[in-house]
Write a sequence for this structure.
């Protein structure tokens, strides 16, 4: 029984890694579509999000079946509950990638990224992609150094998010209302994406150390 | 055993109702603080959010203990898993109320609601409050007519959300960048709040009918 359970937990972990890999690809394409106003790339993000949703739903089914069949208790039980929460956060990160992709589609053929913020959004996009890739590795390896790196990169994303508002509300801002709306939404999405990764990292930390954290996304 | 389990499920339901009641109070104060630029009211929302977080964490503990002790299967298991998800959404709705309250605090003593959008935000705020109150009743009574009403009111919130962008991007918009940022964020928060309520309503529908829905917030 115990061996079957370990195999099933391994299956859960493999699926989380698979979903996280798709999310990382999605945010990579979404941020590139945003920074390059590439509407074809944006379409692929939007069209393929259903794969992430479907895999997350399947993973939830698997977790529920494990709960039913194996009646895990103590730490094992919390691992399965954590997996349900991690899957919810990954699914949401996929949605946020879609929102970023949609921004480039709405404004096409206009450039979506407002002048004066192109460097900032390239940097935020790179950080989100790095965070997503590190998250996949963290889920695969449970290497806690990666959790620390994700937290540090999230701090950088938060600082950039604040700098967007400083820029938009500053005296030198020459953007139209549409630029202000785009900057506000895009910055918020980039920041939320990174927040979800930090929240998942905390849960993985539990899986590795036994320190349970209440949900906090 | 079965009777104990039913009592524990009742306890879960009671606690969901308790948290939802706090969330409804919080969104009521948050939207009033926003519409009236009442910073004292905003502070109460911000200061009291930890109560919602703590109750949600306690509810999660209870649900995990039920899973461990009772080993529920089939529909009973899904009810407990649904409760974990509902608690996560309620906790998030509390966070969104805080974000709305923070907007009025940031701009104080300036009015936060941009001219030309005061009626729209009053309407969105009223709808969010109504939705939250109906959600509490839905959790208490499992009256599915309320789920339908919540969905209809969410449609109205979505329409108002789009109308905010029409306004802000229209030719008559005279707002400064700060007004545009406030309108964009506030509208997004109001819309997300209602989305979470719809997502919870779907899960309650499962509790009542057995139609499992994958997570979708």
């Amino acid at each position: 029984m115990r061996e079957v359970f370990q195999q099933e937990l391994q299956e859960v972990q493999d699926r989380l890694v698979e979903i996280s890999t798709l999310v990382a690809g999605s945010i990579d394409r979404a941020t590139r579509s945003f920074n390059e106003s590439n509407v074809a790339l944006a379409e692929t993000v939007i069209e393929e999000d259903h794969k992430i949703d479907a895999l997350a739903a399947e993973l939830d089914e698997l977790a529920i079946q494990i709960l039913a069949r194996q009646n895990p208790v103590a730490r094992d039980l919390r691992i399965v509950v954590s997996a349900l929460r991690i899957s919810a956060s990954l699914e949401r990160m996929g949605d946020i990638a879609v929102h970023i992709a949609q921004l480039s589609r709405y404004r096409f053929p206009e450039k979506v990224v407002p002048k004066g913020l192109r460097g900032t959004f390239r940097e935020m996009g790179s950080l989100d992609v790095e965070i997503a890739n590190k998250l996949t590795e963290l889920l695969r390896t449970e290497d806690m150094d990666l959790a620390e790196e994700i937290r540090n990169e999230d701090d950088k994303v938060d600082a950039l998010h604040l700098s967007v508002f400083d820029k938009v509300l500053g005296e030198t801002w020459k953007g139209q209302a549409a630029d202000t709306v785009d900057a506000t939404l895009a910055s918020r999405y980039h920041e939320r994406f990174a927040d979800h990764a930090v929240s998942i990292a905390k849960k993985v930390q539990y899986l590795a150390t036994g320190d349970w954290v209440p949900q906090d996304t």
User: Anything to note?
Assistant: The interface with chain A takes residues 53, 56-57, 60, 64, 67-68, 71-74, 77-78, 81, 84-85, 87-88, 91-92, 165, 168-169, 173, 175, 177-178, 180-181, 184-185, 188, 214-217 of chain B (CB under 8 Å).
